[in-house]
Amino acid sequence: MSEISAGTRRLTVNAAFLKDIKDDNRDLKILIDRLRTVTKPRPTAANHWLELVRLLADLRDQLAIHFGLEEAYGYFDLATDADAQMSAAAETLKAEHADLFESCRHLSEAIAGVVTPEGFGDDLGEGQDPELTTAQEKILDRIERFLFQFHRHEESELKLILDALDEDLGGGD
Predict the structure, then answer these.
(1) Sign of CA dihedral 119, 125, 129, 130
(2) Tens digit of pLDDT for each residue in 77-122?
(3) Distance from C-alpha of 146 to C-alpha of 143, rounded to nearest angstrom
(4) What's the whole-model pTM score?
């Protein structure tokens, strides 16, 4: 167990719990990287639609774990104790967890409902890609927006953690 002290505030870090968070982050990164690979360029997605259905279901499940670990770990509590501005930022970011999870859940349900045309890809010549349906294009747009929002959220969390640690170490004076 390691500790960071600043006045009466103290952050205790459980090494085993940090390993869980590290493993979760690795798994989440792998899922997101695979999603990006399968959706760019767009025609690739048409060839891997069933994989996209599975990937979004896996992402939904992984986000539940990810957000649960972040909230249980308590780095939000660290930021909340710091000052009013950090407390407000922490509350905003914590509230985004539910919104992001629900967005991913809806995406997972929506993509499972978009069925590929019968015979999709069966009668294509070598090197030809199937064309995406309008419904598939809309889902891919939603995936792209979700991944952007999630990335922005994670960047904001990282900034909050770094700001809180900087203040703990006396750099915020």
Answers:
(1) negative
(2) 555 555 777 778 888 998 999 999 999 999 999 998 886 654 344 4
(3) 5
(4) 0.78
